[in-house]
Amino acid sequence: MRTSLRRVRSGGALTTNPPSVYSDVVACIVCGPGNFGSHHKDGAGPVSTPSGTMAEEADKNDAAMEAEKQRLQMAAVLYRALRGAEGDLANARPRSRADLAGACHSKLQYDFPIVNAAEVDALVEEMATEIAEGTTPGSMVYPVTAALVNAAVEGACKPAPGTGAAPGISGKSNGDERKEDAGAGGVGDEPAVDRGAVRTAYQRLCATALVYFTSRVLAMSDDEADDALRGYRVEVETAPAEVKEDPAEDGDDGEEPPGESSAVDASDSDSDWEPMETDQRIAPTSTDDDAADGILGAMPPEARVDAKLAHLLSRLSRACVDGDDVWDTPPNASLPPLASALVSLTETLARCEGRPARRAMRSAPLRVLRETWALPKGPPPRSDDSVARLLSALGFESKRKGGGVGGAMARLGLDEAVRGGDEDVGLALEFLAFLCVRLGGEALGDFASAASSSAGKPMGFGVGAAGHLWGHVDAHIDVVAEKFDTLAHVKATGDNAWQQRIGMCSLVVAFHAAKAPGNADPGGVLTRTGALRAMCAAFTAPDNAVAPHSEALRRAVLLVASAAPKAGEFLASVPGVRSEVETRDEFQPEGSLAAHGALWELLLPAKGTSPDDAERLCAERLAPLLDPKRRAVSGGLVAGASLGLLRAVQTAGRGRGPSPLWRRGGAIDGVLRDALTSLATTVSAGARARGMDKSSRPKKAAGSDDEGEDDDGGEAAAASDPELEKSREMASAALRVLKEILGAADGGGGRKCD
Length: 754
Fold this sequence. Notes:
Layout: E1 4-7, E2 14-17, H1 21-31, H2 36-39, H3 54-92, H4 97-107, H5 117-133, H6 146-157, E3 180-181, E4 192-193, H7 195-218, H8 222-228, H9 247-250, H10 293-297, H11 301-314, H12 324-328, H13 338-350, H14 356-359, H15 363-373, H16 386-393, H17 408-412, H18 422-439, H19 447-454, H20 463-475, H21 477-490, H22 496-514, H23 522-529, H24 531-539, H25 551-563, H26 565-573, H27 577-583, H28 594-603, H29 611-622, H30 638-652, H31 667-696, H32 714-720, H33 722-748
Antiparallel strand pairs: 1-2, 3-4
């Protein structure tokens, strides 16, 4: 409450008196201007007059009541005016950062908060300051709560302005052009701010609460961490007790079939090369109800802290921190950039060998880094040790060179039995394979990537990104080869985990061969490290060469043979490798893997076959595959899949020097040019069909209310003959890739290092 200055008869001094000025104003009006002094003098009221007649007294009373009523009305008007003036002064005075932060923190404890960017930024700065200065848990002014995290994640994950209208948790459209209120209470006619600024501020808040705060808590003792997370209430679910059934009742030996309990098959995209997610956990739900303390309250502090941290990190995703500003600028100058903070967080969690529940959280920051480095900028260059630190934290080191017990292991103080185990190997391989797929899709035979690139719509995976990744892959190729060799000789073809690991190793090896710069020797490296031996062992495993999950392995064999002819000779000479292709129906002209079989004739020919004969045999088998009318079982064009694989093989073989994959004017060149004509005819026929459909449709009458007709005829034509439209689109994409192949063969495909 504002204080007023009043003269108090106490030695003549001017002192501050708590009562507000409103009491003086009201007293003045109520008592009247002439009686104000008598009212305040010795506590006496107005002087009374002698009594008159009863009629005079009644008139006097009526007059006094009317005067009193008027005075009270005037007092009310003046009181409201003074209150309004004081409010205007308060609003005109700029609020401090602490005031904004406190207001924002209070709003975020409720559903559907309305805040502006300035308030959220102030809260981020205040929280970051507490984290950077190491404020003790009991002294934190802005504790992290479940409601705050919910609001921050929802606000951060909303699509950026202009990117679409997706409904949020609140049920409101995120793509609505409605602006958030920048003033008080969300009044619609108040000044508004750009939703993009609020979204960015929310992302900084997510980084602060989910990464920097978590790192700070991990550095505390369990008691301190428990105190810091006291306001973060979550509801946890306990796993039901396992019921052990008697194997004799089911008539089996009680052992689980191989692969039944392995990692869940979950791909991040539609690519054939996409590695599988091996860590999918259902996070507990959050609540602010005191009843949530039931299960957690009965836990010891260390278990309670780990349960809350697991829930906190389960909210962390790339979507809530995808802004460039969030990664480039930390919330406090004393804190590291977000990428460095995530790397350190992963290392810290990986060191918790004595606490499995805490150590299991390492996959959350690792996944965010993986998805961030899979974007156009790619991972940091090899000179930056971030990728090496992550792989080292997972124990992804060569045991042949003593890395399993020395070096980084000693640095981290971990036991070999904990670090570098089966789960860590899976995480490391998944990390590398994911980046290889995303940054080298075209080079690995992904038809969609090749078509988009050829259409002048690059996927954003530039030379620099792939080059940086190749440096990291090359630095760890001996470790990959070692793991590949160990897996291949086990030959557990019925195990899902084994299948995934073999595919991931194949991806990394294929990327190393396909994206190698011109001065590299991928064949020599793969031979020396044992990767070629591992590929042969995996390829000859029972029924593995034609298995659906072995597509990465099959492509790796072709890409290595294309990039390094001597390595191809080694692969073809291994007993059993060539026979798998010659005897399996899937590799024959009418089989599902006919494109692979055709390229084997070119890259891995039978012993004694001349280059001209190899090219002729390949051309004969390619010709029917490039027919635009031939469809695969899935409904797509066989030509598209074949051309994607051919383009990848051509890209990998750019470093062959004077020995190109096929001669200009030769058999393969002739087949490709014939296919070019056929595909162009198919595309033209589709375009004519669309035009005829448009011209044959009756024109809409003027003023018609039929909104279903499309004036340009495009969508209507597709709806009238969807199969024709689909064929035209696939043929158009295949045509773009074929033009790219012919252009590269004519010398326009760029250098090997491209």
